[in-house]
Amino acid sequence: FARQSAGLKQSTLSSESSSTYQAPLSEITKRRNLAIISHPDSGKTTMTEKLLLYGGALQQAGAVRHKAEQRATQSDFLAMEQERGISISSTVLNFDYQDYTIRLLDTPGHQDFSEDTYRALAATDQALMLMDAAKGLEPQTRKLFEVCQLRSIPLFTFVNKMDRPALSPYDIMDQIEQEFGLEPHPILWPIGDGDRFKGVLDRTTNTVHLYQKAEKRGAKAEATEVALDDERLADWIGDSELYEKLMEDAELLNEMIPPLDMERVMIGKQSPLFFGSAMTNFGVQLFLDHFCRMGTEPLGRETSKDILITPDYGEFTGFVFKTQANLDPKHRDRLAYVRIVSGKYEKGMKVNHSRSKRQYNLAQAQALFGSDRTSVDEAFPGDVIGINNPGSFAIGDTLYSGNSPIAFPGIPSFSPEKFAYIRAPNPSDYKSFKKGIDQLLAEGAVQALRQRNDENGPLLLAAVGQLQFEVVQARLLSEYKVDSKMEPLGYSLARWVDGGWEAVEKADKDGKLFGIMIVQDQWKRPVLLFRNDWKAASLAEEEKYLQLKPWSA
Ligand code: G4P
């Protein structure tokens, strides 16, 4: 999706459309959405809780629960997520803060669910990269950063856990710059670390914020604000070494750091940088204040015909980025999550479905707050709504009102690295097994592969990580009451053959596919499975006509 900087609105279609409704500008400009990406354990759950605390949303939705009692926040809701303390499915948390309406898109931190994260990133306009101050960049931070870069997503960076012994902030900045080619621009700068972490300097106002640890875990931190040039500052800090270091750092940063350039932030080249501690709330509210002001309002999306649809385009447009069944096991319902790009959702409105060319009546959309849902009568660009999915909506589908056909490009799948046959050992379970598998495939929980032209042959599942298989088995059991057996295969890489079946046949005839498994995906496109990277790379190099691709678009 092409991105544009906020304010540069130029909906190519708005002049031609039979425009019925334009979302009020204020509904667009007050919205901010954000996805948090991080390596597991960096504090994403804690940060989410604290953002909700400052947004007043936790009081509404129930008290903050201690993890020892229940290792889950409002955004973890499937039983398995709670048992394992991992966040599997991305959900949306909505809250108002000051004059802003914030949509927090939760993303799973575990690498086995990168694909779900990627889809959530398709629906957001900016992301927060959370890092552990003692650890710096970690493997999953790297992987998620690459995903953000693929989409040129503007990134804010929050270095968390400053209340523990931390790396030097300069070293952290170096890591970000050297490894990611991303220029960090410190907005909040730490004063000390570990037990000596006193607070932060806000470089935009030259104000020092000194914190006191909140007595209660869920309480907001009390802060004292002092100007950097206030004579009393040294006394307030109460540590002459830290005071001198702060004055030195402030001067050095002013000389060394190029000015903040929001245009570079918008294209993912510069990243506003914050230091703090989510657990003790140091710097969290300041981050939120800056984010609301600096972050972008919802952006437009480009269609597959390269037409930019901006939020002020007069018709409703949106795309499905996630589908999920059985959110509420009592109701056995299925939801498609739609990111609204333009116009306004109104209860009962008719929309066109680009893939099937059919019309649907969106009788009841829901706003989501973790596992809680409320019915909404209207929703605006940047919002995510959950619509009832009778099985018609798939990930990547476009919905639109009006007469001009619109189709946003699909969301590509990640290249799977794990492969296993799955079957129901008990033949009498077959019907439920098929129903469950079909649903999980529609959700994109895993991908399905089969032997060529063998619709009823053994079902081969493909996933990015092993945990995805475990989720499939756990959900088949809990939601469809079916036991399943999996039999792993020793392949570790899949490549789609853009050259088509003819190219596969030629390579096979020439004896080039020895030791490689030939299968087809759900759309009957040829896929080759390899045992190692090296084999895939040499085949791609030697047999160019195959046009091997790591993605299925
Ligand atoms: P995640 O969602 O990214 O996996 O991280 P999560 O918030 O669950 O945090 C992981 C651990 O790090 C938790 O400790 C949490 O309390 C701690 N943590 C988060 N932010 C900070 C911080 O700013 N400073 C410090 N010192 N610790 C932080 P835990 O022992 O796993 O759980 P708990 O018993 O403390 O809840």
What general outline do the C-alpha atoms trace?
A: globular
Can you list the ligands bound to this structure? guanosine-5',3'-tetraphosphate
- Could you describe the largest sheet, including whether it forms a barrel? 8 strands, antiparallel
Low-pLDDT windows of residues: 1-11, 14-19, 59-77, 84-90
Beta-strand residue percentage: 25-35%
Overall mean pLDDT score? 85
| Secondary-structure class | alpha+beta
Spatial gap, N to C terminus = 13 Å
Provide the gyration radius in Å. 25 Å
**Strand arrangement in the largest pleated sheet:** 18-17-23-14-15-22-19-20
**In total, how many beta strands?**
31
Helix content: 25-40%
Number of helices: 15
Structural write-up:
The protein is α+β, with helices and mostly antiparallel strands and about 550 residues long. The chain has an eight-stranded antiparallel β-sheet. A seven-stranded mixed β-sheet has the order 2-3-1-4-5-11-6, sandwiched between helices. Strands 7-8-9-10 form a four-stranded antiparallel β-sheet. Strand 19 (about 365-370) and strand 20 (about 370-375) form a beta hairpin. Residues about 1-10, about 15-20, about 60-75 and about 85-90 have low confidence and may be disordered. It starts with about 25 loop residues before the first helix and ends with a strand. The structure holds guanosine-5',3'-tetraphosphate. It is found in: Cytoplasm; Plastid, Chloroplast. It comes from Fistulifera solaris.
